[in-house]
Amino acid sequence: MADVTGSQWYDAEAGPLVRPYAMTGGRTKPGPSNVRFDLIALVVVDRDAPGSAEESLLGPEHRALLALCRSETQSVAELAADADLPVGVVRVLLGDLLEAGYVKVSRPVPAAQLPDERILREVIEGLRAL
Fold first, then answer.
1. DSSP code, position 114
2. C-alpha to C-alpha distance for 53 and 30, rounded to whole angstroms
3. How far apart are CA 130 and CA 115, in angstroms?
4. DSSP helix/strand/coil, 78
5. For residue range 87-108, what is the model confidence (pLDDT) as tens digits?
6. Cα separation of 49 and 41, whole Å?
7. Which helix (DSSP H) or strand (DSSP E) does residue 52 occupy?
């Protein structure tokens, strides 16, 4: 490990370290509306998002998440993994992006609203009988 005098915030192998609370401004909840992001919620860049001039005012982590969402629709868990950020931090940052109109989030269907397994099995059996 390289000797970096006077800096406990630097790891020679990982590069400069930024604490999660610095990225979120000490916040632990996403946005003023306290929206909850499930790990499997899908995030996509909004077609009506503010322009690149406004985007340049965002922090580097916000811009990294936007870049990942532009390439393809991703879940919150995928964004956290691809951005190499803790899920809690990604949720707070996504809350900022959602409040500012940069992204849209589609929430997963609750299990109570999914079709009954018995009905699905009957449909499969009916299709096989054809």
1. S
2. 24
3. 22
4. helix
5. 888 888 888 888 888 888 887 7
6. 19
7. helix 52-55
Report field, pTM of the whole predicted structure over 0.85:
no
- Please say whether the beta carbons of 14 and 48 come within 8 A: no
Residues 6+ apart with CB under 8 A from 16: 9, 10
Chain-centre distance of CA 103, in angstroms? 10
**How far apart (Å, rounded) are the C-alpha atoms in residues 20 and 18?**
6
Residue with tokens 């490990």: 1
Is residue 36 packed enough to be buried (19+ CB in 10 Å), middle (13-18) or exposed (0-12)? Answer: exposed
Say if residues 76 and 103 touch (Cβ distance below 8 Å). Answer: no
Max CA pair span of the chain:
75
